[in-house]
Amino acid sequence: MKLSYHVVDAFAERPFGGNPxxxxxxxxxxxxxxxxxxxAENRLSETAFCVRVDDSSYQIRWFTPACEIDLCGHATxxxxxxxxxxxxxxxxxxxxxxxxxxxxxxxxRDGDMIRMEFPRIAPAPFSCDDDFEKALGAAPAQVLxxxxxxxxxxxxxxxxxxxxxxxxxxxxxxxGLSTYVTAPASGHDxxxxxxWPKIGIDxxxxxxxxxSALVPYWSERLGKRDLVCFEPSQREGTVWCxxxxxxxxxxxxxxxxxxxxxxx
Length: 264
Fold this sequence. Notes:
This protein is α+β, with helices and mostly antiparallel strands. The chain has six helices and 18 strands.
Protein backbone atom coordinates (compact mmCIF):
# COMPACT_ATOMS: atom_id res chain seq x y z
CA MET A 1 0.00 0.00 0.00
CA LYS A 2 1.29 3.47 -0.92
CA LEU A 3 0.06 6.54 0.96
CA SER A 4 0.49 10.20 0.13
CA TYR A 5 2.73 11.82 2.75
CA HIS A 6 3.83 15.39 3.42
CA VAL A 7 5.65 17.22 6.20
CA VAL A 8 4.74 20.87 6.78
CA ASP A 9 6.47 23.23 9.21
CA ALA A 10 3.48 24.94 10.82
CA PHE A 11 3.72 28.45 12.32
CA ALA A 12 7.16 28.75 10.71
CA GLU A 13 8.80 32.11 10.07
CA ARG A 14 11.92 30.50 8.62
CA PRO A 15 13.12 27.16 7.20
CA PHE A 16 13.34 24.50 9.90
CA GLY A 17 11.27 26.66 12.24
CA GLY A 18 7.79 26.19 13.63
CA ASN A 19 6.39 22.74 14.32
CA PRO A 20 6.77 19.92 11.77
CA UNK A 21 3.55 18.01 11.15
CA UNK A 22 3.13 14.78 9.23
CA UNK A 23 0.12 14.71 6.89
CA UNK A 24 -1.46 11.67 5.23
CA UNK A 25 -4.37 12.38 2.87
CA UNK A 26 -6.24 9.08 2.57
CA UNK A 27 -8.84 7.81 0.10
CA UNK A 28 -10.54 5.97 2.97
CA UNK A 29 -9.74 5.18 6.57
CA UNK A 30 -7.06 2.59 7.30
CA UNK A 31 -6.72 0.55 10.49
CA UNK A 32 -6.11 2.52 13.66
CA UNK A 33 -3.12 0.33 14.43
CA UNK A 34 -1.54 1.26 11.09
CA UNK A 35 -2.07 4.99 11.67
CA UNK A 36 -0.51 4.64 15.10
CA UNK A 37 2.45 2.71 13.66
CA UNK A 38 3.02 5.40 10.99
CA UNK A 39 2.95 8.16 13.62
CA ALA A 40 5.40 6.21 15.78
CA GLU A 41 7.70 5.72 12.77
CA ASN A 42 7.52 9.42 11.88
CA ARG A 43 8.53 10.50 15.42
CA LEU A 44 6.91 13.91 14.97
CA SER A 45 4.71 15.44 17.66
CA GLU A 46 1.66 14.57 15.60
CA THR A 47 0.75 13.02 12.27
CA ALA A 48 -2.63 14.03 10.84
CA PHE A 49 -4.77 11.68 8.77
CA CYS A 50 -7.73 13.00 6.78
CA VAL A 51 -10.41 11.60 4.48
CA ARG A 52 -12.53 13.69 2.13
CA VAL A 53 -16.27 13.81 2.87
CA ASP A 54 -17.39 16.23 0.14
CA ASP A 55 -16.24 19.50 -1.44
CA SER A 56 -13.67 21.11 0.88
CA SER A 57 -14.88 19.01 3.82
CA TYR A 58 -12.80 16.34 5.57
CA GLN A 59 -12.70 14.14 8.61
CA ILE A 60 -9.42 14.47 10.51
CA ARG A 61 -7.63 12.46 13.20
CA TRP A 62 -4.28 13.05 14.92
CA PHE A 63 -1.78 10.58 16.34
CA THR A 64 1.27 11.25 18.50
CA PRO A 65 4.03 8.61 18.54
CA ALA A 66 2.24 7.07 21.54
CA CYS A 67 -1.53 7.56 21.10
CA GLU A 68 -4.43 9.28 19.34
CA ILE A 69 -5.24 12.78 20.59
CA ASP A 70 -8.54 14.69 20.55
CA LEU A 71 -7.33 18.10 19.26
CA CYS A 72 -4.16 19.31 17.53
CA GLY A 73 -3.49 22.74 16.07
CA HIS A 74 -0.25 22.52 14.13
CA ALA A 75 -1.15 19.25 12.38
CA THR A 76 -4.54 20.70 11.39
CA UNK A 77 -2.64 23.68 9.98
CA UNK A 78 -0.32 21.29 8.13
CA UNK A 79 -3.23 19.29 6.77
CA UNK A 80 -4.98 22.39 5.43
CA UNK A 81 -1.68 23.63 3.93
CA UNK A 82 -1.34 20.36 1.98
CA UNK A 83 -4.98 20.37 0.89
CA UNK A 84 -4.88 23.99 -0.29
CA UNK A 85 -1.61 23.35 -2.14
CA UNK A 86 -2.27 20.01 -3.84
CA UNK A 87 -5.84 18.72 -3.40
CA UNK A 88 -8.16 21.76 -3.14
CA UNK A 89 -6.33 24.52 -5.07
CA UNK A 90 -9.53 26.51 -5.73
CA UNK A 91 -10.86 26.32 -2.17
CA UNK A 92 -10.77 29.36 0.10
CA UNK A 93 -11.89 27.44 3.19
CA UNK A 94 -11.63 23.84 4.35
CA UNK A 95 -13.85 22.32 7.01
CA UNK A 96 -12.69 19.52 9.31
CA UNK A 97 -14.72 17.22 11.53
CA UNK A 98 -12.75 15.59 14.35
CA UNK A 99 -14.81 12.57 15.42
CA UNK A 100 -13.01 11.82 18.70
CA UNK A 101 -14.66 14.81 20.46
CA UNK A 102 -16.95 16.04 17.68
CA UNK A 103 -15.01 19.27 17.08
CA UNK A 104 -15.87 21.23 13.94
CA UNK A 105 -12.82 23.19 12.74
CA UNK A 106 -12.28 25.52 9.80
CA UNK A 107 -9.13 26.65 8.01
CA UNK A 108 -9.10 29.57 5.58
CA ARG A 109 -6.56 31.29 3.36
CA ASP A 110 -5.56 34.68 4.75
CA GLY A 111 -3.01 36.26 2.41
CA ASP A 112 0.19 34.28 2.85
CA MET A 113 -1.10 32.82 6.13
CA ILE A 114 -3.65 30.17 7.07
CA ARG A 115 -6.20 31.13 9.72
CA MET A 116 -7.94 28.44 11.75
CA GLU A 117 -11.07 28.62 13.88
CA PHE A 118 -10.79 26.41 16.97
CA PRO A 119 -12.91 25.82 20.08
CA ARG A 120 -12.67 28.37 22.89
CA ILE A 121 -11.86 26.47 26.10
CA ALA A 122 -11.43 29.01 28.92
CA PRO A 123 -9.32 27.74 31.85
CA ALA A 124 -10.44 28.09 35.46
CA PRO A 125 -8.43 28.50 38.70
CA PHE A 126 -6.96 25.20 39.84
CA SER A 127 -5.29 23.97 43.01
CA CYS A 128 -3.63 20.67 43.85
CA ASP A 129 -0.74 19.25 45.86
CA ASP A 130 1.65 18.86 42.92
CA ASP A 131 5.03 20.57 43.35
CA PHE A 132 5.09 22.91 40.36
CA GLU A 133 8.28 24.65 41.46
CA LYS A 134 10.30 21.42 41.48
CA ALA A 135 8.84 20.31 38.14
CA LEU A 136 9.17 23.63 36.31
CA GLY A 137 12.11 25.21 38.11
CA ALA A 138 10.01 28.16 39.29
CA ALA A 139 6.75 28.66 41.13
CA PRO A 140 3.91 29.93 38.90
CA ALA A 141 2.04 33.05 39.96
CA GLN A 142 -1.21 31.35 38.98
CA VAL A 143 -2.32 27.85 38.02
CA LEU A 144 -5.37 27.30 35.82
CA UNK A 145 -6.84 24.23 34.18
CA UNK A 146 -9.23 23.06 31.51
CA UNK A 147 -10.76 19.60 31.50
CA UNK A 148 -7.67 18.37 29.62
CA UNK A 149 -4.74 20.72 30.27
CA UNK A 150 -2.85 22.74 32.88
CA UNK A 151 -1.94 26.41 32.41
CA UNK A 152 0.87 27.80 34.57
CA UNK A 153 1.17 31.59 34.46
CA UNK A 154 4.43 33.32 35.33
CA UNK A 155 5.19 37.00 35.85
CA UNK A 156 8.50 37.01 34.00
CA UNK A 157 9.06 36.28 30.30
CA UNK A 158 12.64 35.12 30.97
CA UNK A 159 11.38 32.39 33.31
CA UNK A 160 9.37 30.83 30.50
CA UNK A 161 12.10 31.29 27.88
CA UNK A 162 14.86 29.78 30.04
CA UNK A 163 12.81 27.03 31.68
CA UNK A 164 14.40 23.57 31.82
CA UNK A 165 11.61 21.45 33.28
CA UNK A 166 11.83 18.05 34.92
CA UNK A 167 9.68 16.03 32.52
CA UNK A 168 9.39 13.03 34.84
CA UNK A 169 7.85 15.29 37.48
CA UNK A 170 5.48 16.82 34.91
CA UNK A 171 4.49 13.33 33.83
CA UNK A 172 3.51 12.63 37.44
CA UNK A 173 1.18 15.66 37.73
CA UNK A 174 -2.25 14.61 38.97
CA UNK A 175 -4.01 16.63 36.25
CA GLY A 176 -3.24 17.77 32.75
CA LEU A 177 -2.58 15.78 29.61
CA SER A 178 -0.30 18.72 28.79
CA THR A 179 1.23 21.54 30.80
CA TYR A 180 1.39 25.03 29.27
CA VAL A 181 3.63 27.77 30.69
CA THR A 182 3.04 31.39 29.76
CA ALA A 183 3.99 34.96 30.70
CA PRO A 184 3.54 38.51 29.39
CA ALA A 185 6.17 39.44 26.79
CA SER A 186 7.96 42.44 25.38
CA GLY A 187 7.45 42.70 21.63
CA HIS A 188 4.51 40.28 21.76
CA ASP A 189 1.45 39.97 23.94
CA UNK A 190 2.65 36.79 25.62
CA UNK A 191 5.09 33.91 25.36
CA UNK A 192 4.12 30.27 25.86
CA UNK A 193 5.57 26.78 25.75
CA UNK A 194 3.82 23.41 25.75
CA UNK A 195 5.02 20.24 27.50
CA TRP A 196 3.41 16.84 26.77
CA PRO A 197 5.57 14.12 28.38
CA LYS A 198 2.48 12.10 29.30
CA ILE A 199 2.02 11.24 25.61
CA GLY A 200 5.66 10.95 24.64
CA ILE A 201 6.36 14.58 23.64
CA ASP A 202 8.61 16.44 26.07
CA UNK A 203 8.05 19.78 24.31
CA UNK A 204 5.77 20.50 21.38
CA UNK A 205 7.86 23.05 19.42
CA UNK A 206 5.03 25.44 18.47
CA UNK A 207 1.68 24.28 19.81
CA UNK A 208 -1.52 25.54 18.18
CA UNK A 209 -4.22 23.87 20.27
CA UNK A 210 -3.04 25.49 23.50
CA UNK A 211 -4.33 28.80 22.13
CA SER A 212 -7.85 27.48 22.75
CA ALA A 213 -7.09 27.94 26.46
CA LEU A 214 -4.55 30.77 26.38
CA VAL A 215 -6.44 33.22 24.18
CA PRO A 216 -9.46 33.51 26.53
CA TYR A 217 -7.11 34.08 29.48
CA TRP A 218 -4.90 36.70 27.82
CA SER A 219 -7.79 38.41 26.06
CA GLU A 220 -9.50 39.02 29.39
CA ARG A 221 -6.29 39.95 31.21
CA LEU A 222 -5.04 42.38 28.54
CA GLY A 223 -8.48 43.69 27.54
CA LYS A 224 -8.01 43.04 23.81
CA ARG A 225 -9.28 40.58 21.23
CA ASP A 226 -6.29 40.47 18.87
CA LEU A 227 -3.18 38.87 20.34
CA VAL A 228 0.26 37.74 19.20
CA CYS A 229 1.95 34.81 20.91
CA PHE A 230 5.62 33.93 20.54
CA GLU A 231 6.63 30.36 21.36
CA PRO A 232 10.33 30.39 22.29
CA SER A 233 11.16 26.72 21.83
CA GLN A 234 14.34 25.71 20.04
CA ARG A 235 12.50 25.94 16.69
CA GLU A 236 10.48 29.09 17.56
CA GLY A 237 7.24 30.29 16.03
CA THR A 238 4.75 33.15 16.04
CA VAL A 239 0.99 32.67 16.26
CA TRP A 240 -1.54 35.46 15.54
CA CYS A 241 -4.73 34.94 17.53
CA UNK A 242 -8.12 36.51 18.10
CA UNK A 243 -10.79 35.89 20.72
CA UNK A 244 -13.99 35.58 18.70
CA UNK A 245 -16.18 35.08 21.76
CA UNK A 246 -17.56 31.69 20.79
CA UNK A 247 -14.33 30.44 19.20
CA UNK A 248 -10.62 31.22 18.88
CA UNK A 249 -8.87 32.29 15.69
CA UNK A 250 -5.30 30.99 15.23
CA UNK A 251 -3.11 32.02 12.28
CA UNK A 252 0.43 31.66 11.05
CA UNK A 253 2.77 30.95 8.18
CA UNK A 254 3.76 27.53 6.91
CA UNK A 255 6.48 25.91 4.83
CA UNK A 256 6.42 22.61 2.95
CA UNK A 257 9.40 20.48 3.91
CA UNK A 258 8.69 17.08 2.33
CA UNK A 259 6.41 15.55 -0.28
CA UNK A 260 6.42 11.84 -1.02
CA UNK A 261 4.89 8.43 -0.35
CA UNK A 262 4.82 5.97 2.49
CA UNK A 263 4.97 2.27 1.61
CA UNK A 264 3.34 -0.07 4.12
